[in-house]
Amino acid sequence: MRRKIRTPPLFIFATVIAFSVLSLFLSRLFLHSSRRPLPTTTKLSLPHLHLVDDAADAAADSNLLLDRRRHRFDHLNYDSSVLLPDWELLLILLLPSPAEFSGEDLFCVFHNQETSPAKPVGNSSFKCEVPESLRRLRRIFRPVLTSFPPEAPVELVSPEATQVVMRWSFLVYESLSTETDVILFVKGVNNRQGVGRSVDSLRCVFSSADGVNGVAVRTNATHSFQEVIRCKHPDEPSVRRLVSNGGVKGNRIRVSLEILGYGRQRSRGKPVKVPSVAYYTPVRTLAGDGKKSLLCACTMVHNVAKFLKEWVMYHSHVGVERFILYDNDSSDDLFHVVDELNNNNNNNSSPSSSSNVVNYKVDVVSWPWPKAQEAGFSHSAMYAKSSCTWMMYMDVDEFVFSPSWMNSSRPSTKMITSLLPNASSSISSTTLINSSSTSNTSNIGQVMIKCLDFGPSGRKTHPKEGVMQGYTCRRRGDERHKSVVKLEAIDDSLGNVVHHFELKKGFNGRTVGVKDGVVNHYKYQAWSEFKAKFRRRVSTFVVDWTEEGSLKSKDRTPGLGFEAVEPEGWANQFCEVKDDRLNRVSRGWFGYNCSTSGGVRMAWQD
């Protein structure tokens, strides 16, 4: 007779414990997920999601599908996902999003069935907020980007494995190819201001997008400073080998950075590969009409639509030929205003300047990366080099002004360029700054203009006629400076800080005297506008105002705490000198009598 098999008591006990733990986990997951439920008509079914440790796999496409009963309801594929500060998740598309995905009805669906709305960022990425229930996890899975039809349940099907999102703190986030090299923009490699990791420890790595075929090409780094790493191009046979080996999405090649002797791998002698969302692309430059502009302006913007017309129209009439806006996650009418400016060139002059019609040229570059202003300016220096000779780096609340312009009845497109050396053959040496040292002006690569900081001037709301008309009271002394840079004079490191670039050997900078030119910086505006500055600062090395650090920094506001709370008497602060010079000049150039209101209306007012 066959012996009867008995189940050991220990096995029975372990089975009961395991079943109890599983039941408790599932019940908690169900209760936790119900805090943020999906629409009542929607039901999701998600199989178990496996963890993937390899950072290269984090860039792979999840290929999730949506089924709506018997009909296929396509989701929106995306290439990469990056976890940004403040628990924002950036989803990057390979191609611009289709028109049918408006962004208003798109959602990120996470592995625990929670959702958050997805908003468009430019035309090739989306952002969504990570649910609170996932914020304690060491790894966060890539969500599905989809739209829910309200009339039918939706069932979600996942592949066998889902990738984790990349972290912003250690990432290759952009690349730009020039005629001679490849520029990588990297977070987390050079963390100290003014200090760069040795190029001997850095190599650029070119590989297939998904990293499945194991083929990679490496080139040596030539420069390393701040968030900029420059490497040599891979040779053509290597590029062809990458493409022919397969695994390259649409013939696109992923480019990353390899670090020798980094972190825990230092003692093992193994290189560390930085996760990347960047692709190796052909040479990209600012599109132009074949004519190189003498003077362009570049700025980083976030929700500045209400200020943009005034800034562009004024500076266009005094000499700026082209504007390049690096859009840092704007959610206002920026693109609408830009379209108005670019398409309204036949009706863009004020009554006082009707004989001086200018054409507005405004370009927008998507730059969703937080605290990466210096990298954006480095990018612009190379991106616009073939289209612009000089670049003015200035914010939209800053306006160049010369006291000598008060004698002009209308603006001239030669006004700002008169401050630049060798800008025009018609400019005599006596107009140059520090004219006593004009023996060699060809080596001047940067012109620095001092800033005058204006206060709220009694205002409690934004002046509808613009900042030049609304703010007329300022602090007595000058603060900092802003620069106009000759792009070919910028050092190969592309290093810059607070709108000031490092120059190549042989080039020097020159400071404009306040009697010749200043920057009116409308810095301390009405509190309703000023409090927006408590949003994350755009500079890499400037501490956010909500953090208790760098208390003596000139970026901070005297008497202001760490929260966006209006100080008593704010409207009348920073008023030491009455200065209405630009107020009067701009009203004469751009103002006209309004028959309906009986007052003066500015050309940029809607």
TrEMBL record:
Q: Which residues cross the membrane?
A: 12-31
- Gene Ontology molecular function, alphabetical: glycosyltransferase activity
Tell me what this protein is called. Glycosyltransferase family 92 protein
Highest rank taxon of the organism: Eukaryota
PANTHER family listed in its UniProt record: GLYCOSYLTRANSFERASE FAMILY 92 PROTEIN (PTHR21461)
User: What EC number is given for this enzyme?
Assistant: 2.4.1.-
Where in or outside the cell it occurs: the entry states: Membrane
**Organism for this UniProt entry:** Stephania yunnanensis
UniProt family annotation? Belongs to the glycosyltransferase 92 family.
